Amino acid sequence: MFHNFGYGMGAWGILVMLLFWVLVIALAVWLVRSLSDRQAGPGRASAREILDQRYARGELSRKDYETMKADLNDG
């Protein structure tokens, strides 16, 4: 059925190479999906929660916090 093609691979070599590339592509798809799920998962904090946390850590002044909170409420 399969010929040697002059490369010494034969049928088994072609099947092993095909299996290898299928596994590489499947691994890449799994990796991309797992990373995107982590970023957009159900445990993701809302913008208001992030703003509250930043204010609680002292990263924002009260004026900045109130301004940003008003912007979020307007949107």
Q: Could you tell me the strand content as a percent range?
A: under 5%
What does the largest sheet look like? none
Q: How many discrete structural domains?
A: 2
Gross geometry: rod-shaped
The CA-CA distance between the termini, in Å, is 66 Å
Q: In sequence order, what are the helices and strands, one letter per element?
A: HHH
**Regions with pLDDT < 50 over 5+ consecutive residues?**
none
Q: Count of DSSP helices?
A: 3
Helix content range? over 70%
- DSSP summary, beta strand count: 0
Please compute the radius of gyration using only Cα atoms: 27 Å
Task: Look at the structure and give the mean pLDDT.
Answer: 83
Secondary structure class reads mainly alpha
What do you see in this structure?
This protein has 75 residues and is an all-alpha fold. It folds into two domains: 1-44; 45-75, no CATH class. The protein is built from three helices and no strands. Helix 2 packs antiparallel against helix 3 (62-74). It is rod-shaped and about 75 Å long.
